[in-house]
Amino acid sequence: MSSKVRSCNKCILDSNDDYQITFDINGICSYCEKFDKDYIFILNKTDEEKNRELNNLIEIIKSDGKGKKYDCICGISGGLDSSFLAAKAKEFGLRTLLVHFDNSWNSELAVKNVEQICKYTGFDLHTYVVNWEEFKDLQKAYIKSGVLDWEVPTDHALWAVILKKSKELNIKHILIGANYQTEGILPSTMRYDKADLKNIRDIHSKYGKLKKIRTFPVYKFWWHMYLKWFWGLKLDTLLYYMEYNKDQAKQYLVDVVGWRDYGGKHYESIFTRFYQGYVLNKKFGYDKRKAHLSSLICSGQISKKEAIEDLQNPMINSDVLQDDLQFFLKKMEFTADEFQQIMNQNPVPHLAFKSYSTFEYPLLKKILRLLVIAKKIIK
Ligand SMILES: [Zn+2]
């Protein structure tokens, strides 16, 4: 086996990390190729076409919201993507309910930024405050189990709260901050499926102290599918159709909304800052900035040279990291030795635990395939 590290000719991903990366004859990596393929539907559109589609989408959301208190729901973390989206929703005249999942790891700045967004937009805010003892037990179970994606409990619960609110208030549109421009490239080895409740429950049952998690918000993936396919829930990725440039979006938020920058993508949460800025790299060998910067290269926002220069900066300021580590240990009730041991353990794959991937997902795929065949026969 050759140990030579191969770099992509376009982005800054390389064969050094475990991305299962491959290269074409021009030296372009499989992630760049996937980016072009996945987003061809939008990359080939002119600004005029994008604008027209954006306006159409806004009209549909407004029309579906007629007679209701809200046109749409938007999850808000205080981070760049969701803050920008919420501010734009205001400008588009969408009557939006903001939903915030407070997992008790918000930085002070995040709290202020969410306040600023509410002030600027005038939108109502629904905040779900998690039961900390339960959530801590769940997060600790993830940490002790050796699995990679420590963000699953937060991301799963946020989505559960949003789905519940949309059903309860009969809101059929959810604005999501997902965008190809700043996060179109994200190797699947760097994250895990957030919908896999079976995995969450099994990890907790093996490593949690509490017997059962009772109030933690959860949803089953077939419920999500029912809402999307039968109830009429729509996930709207408005940022796809906008000029969404990271630096310009930040400047806009600073100037117009009074928002302040965190110094890193998703650093609005102290947990996320510590996880992405330290754990993911030290324990699992990933530098998530490489994926983010590669997305910016592929969407034409920065040059490869700029990305490489950016990567030379430390992932996180060392004083901040020290403070975060102490805060993390105290809040999670780990001793420094205990945590060091966890960091030294070998990673354990998520699929070492029960998962929908073993039965439910393949079954669903089969059913969908049959439905497609049946539809063809009926035609
Ligand atoms: Zn590439």
Describe this structure in words.
- The chain has 379 residues and is α/β, with parallel strands linked by helices.
- The chain has one domain: HUPs (Rossmann fold).
- The protein is 53% helix and 6% strand.
- The chain contains 17 helices and five strands.
- Strands 3-2-1-4-5 form a five-stranded parallel beta sheet, with helices on both faces.
- Helix 5 links the parallel strand 2 and strand 3.
- The longest helix has 19 residues.
- The relative contact order is 0.14.
- The structure holds zinc ion.
Précis, in short:
The chain has helices at 30-38, 40-43, 47-64, 80-91, 108-121, 132-145, 152-168, 180-183, 197-207, 221-231, 246-257, 270-282, 288-298, 304-312, 318-332, 336-344, 360-378; strands at 72-75, 96-102, 124-129, 173-175, 234-236. It contains 17 helices and 5 strands.
